[in-house]
Amino acid sequence: MKQTILLVAGARPNFMKIAPIVRALQARADRFDFRLVHTGQHYDREMSDVFFDELGIPKPDFHLEAGGGSHAAQTAKIMVAFEEILQRELPACVLVVGDVNSTLACSIVAKKAHVPVAHVEAGLRSGDRRMPEEINRLVTDAISDWFFVTEPAGVENLLQEGKPRESVFFVGHVMVDNLLFQRAKLEAEGPGAGESPALKARLGRYGVVTLHRPSNVDHPETLGPIVRALGEISRELPLVFPVHPRTRQNIERFGLELGPGIELTRPLSYMDFLNLWKDAALVMTDSGGLQEETTALGVPCLTLRENTERPVTMTEGTNTLVGVDPQRILQAAAAVLRGEGKAGRRPELWDGHASERIVDALDRLL
Ligand code: UD1
Question: Where in the numbering of this chain does the UDP-N-acetylglucosamine 2-epimerase domain appear (predicted)?
Fold first, then answer.
């Protein structure tokens, strides 16, 4: 029988994970119908709509417009609006991705309505409960029915937490499905559009920076030293820094001076950003996804955090955890620039076919 799946996407890092799942479901239209819900957690054009256009995600069937506000306010708005949709649609399953507030909100609502929840990118644990995403991961995994996992550590975490082995599926990474698909498109299309072609031509060798985690950007005593360390590095290696709205607000609010070698841009579209970082000498970030994407393409990455929920990027990939101590950042960047960065290899099953494995599993489960 044909089954309807409700797909949830809300924030920028969800969109690239939903795109390949949509393609895999479309390829099995004999078996599955899907409806797409956009919670509206991210609402600026450059944080949201541009990704739908570029990644070929169909227009959402439902837009909850539940963005902005504190964590509680945002989560609550999403829950109230999603409950109404769920009651109307009565899907066979709700599929959530990642670890953002939308993931948490919709999985709770679905479970209370007795609708099975599939969590894509399940089982990751940073061990840091001060991180909002860690709470979202723990709660979502506590109540989900089926767990689609990107790396072996995720499987171990879920089994240790008592999940039945048959509910845990090591499938690889849907974000890498999207990455390989979009990179092939980019290579076929020539130099690319947007800001990256001109930046690349002008800068030659360059690094890329992204920062948005509250623990790094919400306090001047942390953001200030990070920005000064970046300024230091930028004397040797020009840095392009596409800024998340919250980080831009804080740089201005704290009156921080950026070194002359740092170029701020607005948040870039997926393709424009990919075109930029894939050829960077070095990426410095506090993002979860970019740690993995750089590993997938073999680009050296320094993660400006004390922990990672994605350990395979360190054990097998190109990622090094450097924390936020300026000296450590400077030393690690210098090592990469001397050609002493990690070589790394692409982790198991990061092969572009995770979404198909997920849809195959759902075919057996539903
Ligand atoms: C969210 C996710 C984080 C993810 C990040 C990627 C949670 C808990 N966090 O963090 O895991 O890595 O997205 O971008 O879900 N804002 C805008 N326009 C927008 C969206 C946000 O101006 O389109 C500003 C607003 O001031 C907003 C703030 O950014 O209040 C924070 O947005 P929010 O969605 O709460 O969290 P992010 O920091 O974006």
Answer: 28-362
The dihedral formed by the CA atoms of 26, 29, 32 and 34, expressed in degrees to the nearest 10: 50
The SS3 call for residue 122 is: coil
Among residues 138, 268, 130, 150, the alpha carbon closest in space to that of 209 is found at 268
* pLDDT tens digits along 265-316: 999 999 999 999 999 999 999 999 999 999 999 999 999 999 999 999 999 9
Query: CATH second-level architecture of 3-172+350-365?
Result: 3-Layer(aba) Sandwich (3.40)
**Which of the listed residues 121, 131, 211, 212 should we mutate to test ligand 1's pocket, taking the one with most ligand atoms within 8 A of CB?**
212
Give CA–CA dist 111/233, Å, rounded: 48
What is the Cα–Cα distance from 112 to 92, expressed in whole angstroms? 14
Question: Among the atoms of ligand 1, which is closest to the Cα of residue 136?
Answer: 8
User: Would you give the distance in Å from CA 189 to the centre of its chain?
Assistant: 25
| CB of 100 closer than 6 angstroms to any ligand 1 atom | yes
**What's the gap in Å between 10 CA and the centre of ligand 1?**
10
**Rounded CA separation 332/330 (Å):** 6
Concerning whether 244 is annotated as a catalytic residue, the answer is no
CA 42 to centroid of ligand 1, rounded, Å:
6
CATH topology match: 3-172+350-365 vs 194-337 = yes
Tell which residue, 287, 293, 348, 337, has the closest CA to residue 318: 293
Please give the Cα distance from 198 to 154 (Å, whole number). 40
Encoding tokens for residue 4? 């309807």
Q: Is 333 helix (H, G, I), strand (E, B) or coil?
A: helix
Kindly give the distance from the C-alpha atom of residue 173 to the centroid of ligand 1, in angstroms, as a whole number.
23
What are the structure tokens assigned to 305, written together? 């955090």
Residues of the chain whose pLDDT is less than 70?
none
pLDDT tens profile 120-142 = 999 999 999 999 999 999 999 99
Task: Out of 42, 212, 244, 353, pick the active-site residue.
Answer: 212
CATH topology of domain 194-337: Rossmann fold (3.40.50)
Strand pairing category for 146-149 and 117-120: parallel
